[in-house]
């Protein structure tokens, strides 16, 4: 019997080796399919990037953008942000007159050793902070000629999509802005399984908003407003408009992405001041290409890459 069992080991090794080869081949084919899926969009994004760089004054404005991003010293080289719980800690008032009169002051603090583990909790927080982030996004956009995607009613049966400023919407009842919604549970579960090893705390884009700009200097102006906002704590900036950025990683797509927290009286009252949100600052040529179908292809591209 022992000889028979030992004779099986070479075949087991062969099966394991063959399975490994199969996985590598399958992975390579998946990556190839992912690239083919977004190749057309990638070419359009690359063409858009060339047109952006060729615009008058673009080199100077892109340099200024890079400098503004670099000026946010506390986010340089930072680790990927995570969702942490907000816990209450008790501290003793050192000015107490007598030990029996010791006063405990409850202070709320970010507990970086206690990550959010519940997806339900994360989505409840996102729903609470969503209107607050939206209000902020509107204010930032208003200061910098920022636009939002909108559906314009042409007639009873025809509509088309545009990117418009808020003041235009106020004077035209035929325009409806489509603000970003909270990430779907389905997509959140996909990212948890494929990218984050079921670590809920790594989902930092459940609550998000996007602002679109026709000019680079308007985008830079908005970024400055974000940085100067006293209620905003910026955790990370991804400058995909940096001229050294390798755009093939994002299928040619470029924007300036920020992860941030809003630490205001309202968020503190709701207990969501530690919730990490995402804000995307996008130039119009890229927003035009990033249609609903284009975004679906990009999501599939990331799924095939296991991202």
Structural overview:
This protein has 307 residues and is of the alpha+beta class. It has a domain at 40-81 and 116-149 and 178-304: Beta Polymerase, domain 2 (2-Layer Sandwich). It is built from nine helices and nine strands. It has helices at residues 2-54, 58-71, 119-143, 166-170, 185-194, 216-228, 265-270, 284-289, 292-304; strands spanning 84-92, 104-115, 148-153, 159-164, 175-177, 208-213, 232-239, 256-262, 277-283. It has a four-stranded mixed β-sheet. A three-stranded antiparallel β-sheet has the order 4-3-5. A hairpin with a 5-residue loop joins strand 3 and strand 4 (159-164). Helix 1 runs antiparallel to helix 9 (292-304) and helix 2 packs parallel to helix 6. The radius of gyration is 24 Å and the shape is globular. It starts with a helix and ends with a helix. The model is unreliable at 96-106 (pLDDT under 50). The chain crosses the membrane at residues 6-26. Keywords: Membrane, Transmembrane, Transmembrane helix.
The portion of residues assigned to helices is: 40-55%
Number of helices: 9
What name goes with the CATH superfamily of the domain at 40-81 and 116-149 and 178-304?
Beta Polymerase, domain 2
Mean pLDDT: 83
Taking all Cα atoms into account, the compactness measure Rg is 24 Å
- CATH class wording of the domain at 40-81 and 116-149 and 178-304: Alpha Beta
In sequence order, what are the helices and strands, one letter per element? HHEEHEEHEHEHEEHEHH
Q: What proportion strand?
A: 15-25%
Secondary-structure map:
Layout: H1 2-54, H2 58-71, E1 84-92, E2 104-115, H3 119-143, E3 148-153, E4 159-164, H4 166-170, E5 175-177, H5 185-194, E6 208-213, H6 216-228, E7 232-239, E8 256-262, H7 265-270, E9 277-283, H8 284-289, H9 292-304
């Amino acid at each position: 019997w022992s000889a028979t069992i030992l004779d099986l080991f070479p075949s087991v090794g062969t099966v394991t080796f063959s399975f490994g080869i199969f996985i590598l081949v399958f992975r390579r084919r998946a990556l190839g399919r992912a690239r083919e899926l977004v190749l057309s969009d990638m070419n359009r994004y690359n063409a858009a990037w060339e047109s952006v760089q060729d615009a008058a004054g673009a080199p100077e404005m892109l340099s200024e953008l890079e400098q503004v991003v670099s000026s946010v010293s506390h986010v340089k080289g930072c680790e990927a942000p995570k969702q942490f719980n907000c816990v209450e800690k008790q501290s003793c008032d050192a000015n107490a007159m007598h030990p029996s009169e010791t006063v405990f002051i409850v202070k709320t603090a970010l507990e970086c050793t206690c990550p959010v583990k519940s997806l339900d909790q994360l989505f409840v927080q996102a729903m609470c902070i969503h209107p607050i982030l939206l209000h902020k996004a509107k204010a930032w956009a208003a200061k910098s000629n920022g636009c939002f995607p909108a559906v314009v009613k042409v007639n009873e049966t025809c509509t088309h999509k545009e990117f418009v400023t808020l003041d235009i919407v106020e004077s035209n009842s035929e325009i409806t802005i489509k603000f970003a919604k909270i990430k779907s549970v389905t997509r959140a579960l996909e990212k948890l399984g494929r990218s984050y090893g079921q670590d809920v705390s790594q989902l930092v884009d459940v609550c998000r908003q996007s602002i679109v700009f026709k000019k680079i200097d308007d985008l830079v102006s908005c970024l400055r407003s974000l940085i100067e906002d006293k209620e905003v704590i910026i955790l990370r900036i991804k400058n995909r408009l940096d001229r050294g950025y390798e755009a093939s990683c994002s299928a040619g797509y470029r924007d300036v992405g920020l992860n941030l927290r809003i630490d205001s009286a309202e968020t503190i009252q709701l207990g969501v001041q530690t919730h990490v949100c995402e804000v995307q600052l996008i130039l119009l040529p890229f927003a035009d290409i990033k249609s609903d179908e284009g975004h679906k292809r990009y999501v599939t591209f990331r799924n095939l890459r296991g991202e």
